[in-house]
What does this fold into?
Amino acid sequence: MTAIQIAALVEEQAQIFHLSSVHKRYLIMTATLAPAAAPAESDPVLGTDFAIEMVRQMRAVDAYGTYDAWPAERILEPFILTQEKKREIPVIGDPDEIILSRVKVFYNAIAALIEKECGLMAVPTINLTHEGFGRALITVGKLVVMDRTLRDVHRFGFPSLSKMKDEADKVLSVALEIIGQWPKVAGM
It folds into this structure.
């Protein structure tokens, strides 16, 4: 189904059920998510649960619907920071709102995967100074399952999609292990 067909179908449903523009956008986003998140021949990481959740989170913070028609590679491209791109960024700098939203998206995606795996609500908390230093926490119940110190957030990124997924998988496995050790605290 093409994007035009999806939009026409959503518009038809909106008229029947008197849907708001927010509901229409949600329907379009969910209808186009599966094809956009399908694995590309170039990178099998795009078909993983983590990449699909990252795309979902990026589309959630997109207030204007710009990402709705973009493929997963293009949406996740800002997270890839090669050595050449890193050299172009000054060593000292303040992160802007776009970079801060990327940091939040990364940890929100991990929290969503923790919820999916254990069935308990995971809450990410990001506390950053204007200079880009701070902490990222993920809590499940009263249990802190992840605690990361963040530095130089204005240079936040990963060398490749697979490195980003590996980092998320490490955090996810440690978090699930901690939840397994302390299930009563996680359930509070």
